[in-house]
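This section describes the prediction task in plain terms. A model, or a person checking by hand, is given the sequence of a single protein chain and must write out its three-dimensional structure as a string of tokens. No templates, partner chains or ligands are provided. The sample shown here is typical of the held-out split.
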Amino acid sequence: MMRILLLGGTTEASRLADTIAAAGIDAVFSYAGRTNTPVAQPLPTRIGGFGGIDGLVRFLITERITHVIDATHPFAAGMTRNAFAACQSVNLPLIRFERPAWVAGIADNWTMATAVEDIPALLPDMPTQVFLAIGKQQIGLFASKPQHHYLLRLVDHPAAPIALPDKTIVVARGPFDQQGDTELLKAHGITHVVAKNSGGTGAQAKLEAARALGLPVIMANRPDVPGRSLASIRDVMSWLGHEAERGV
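The expected answer:
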């Protein structure tokens, strides 16, 4: 019998969970536990880490998992590498379900960074107003440029102090739209947008707003991760040997 471990946390993971549940396939949905109020899923759900590669291997064996789908965030490289290593060690099939990366258009003013760690050095020395749209895990990197004012948009209120002396925090959950993000950037006098190349539509509005306002964007490229990836639910269901529902 097929039993899937779906590593989630993205909008695409939730959509795939709906399709898997509708197909009547046995599956477990796993959240990393980064947000306080994760979106409810139509599958049995677990929250929290596995305890590294060895812990994930134990889970796969104990839960009799037959297939693993990694639908985590494109920048959750640690989890993706652990999943790859764990599945290789017990010879389980693994696929990464990953949304396509964003591509700059002719009207965009993007500077690409190899990694998020490289972005602070790309900010100007003169004080500016920066929309720091990278989540909460790597905010501390920007303490090296304390002269800037940072606008942070987070899913949850931060549980610990944020090491930025000049900041504004907005708590909101996407998806967002261009009009709303344009108004947000204008209201805070934003001069630079900092983002990760996460792809997808839920967070694309900030890039559309930056384009409309003629603002520069500093964008971190995705980390390199091992394994094969697919970009559609239909392809993932075909990989599983099940036909996706029409209209997906």
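For orientation: The helical segments are 11-22, 52-62, 77-90, 178-187, 205-213, 233-240.
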